[in-house]
Amino acid sequence: MARKPSDFDADLQALMDKAKKVKSQKTVQLGELVQVVGADILPMGALAGALLAAIEQSRKQPEAVTRWTERGRSFFQQKGKRGKKKGSGDPAAGVANNICSSA
Length: 103
What we know:
- This protein is mainly alpha-helical and about 100 residues long.
- It has a domain at about 40-103.
- About 75% of the residues lie in helices and about 0% in strands.
- It contains four helices and no strands.
- Helix 1 (about 10-35) packs across helix 4 and helix 3 runs antiparallel to helix 4.
- The chain is elongated, with a radius of gyration of 19 Å.
- The termini are far apart.
């Protein structure tokens, strides 16, 4: 039997669409994270500055990332113990699951 020719343009378009969807989901999750931890009360400039400082510190002191990771896990575990259930419509549940599973 002869092989069916591949439609490289369609395959490329499908990959580009999937990449766009993943990027969009990541953006939404980062926004949810900012809200869940309460960082949305900070002015945008202050939040950007804090993130830039964190990036700088992570390069100079990689062990800081380990401390931050533990603090984040603790935050989400405490939040979970306060009655927040997975699938309750709370963005923290999805954010917490993604943070804890990716670490």
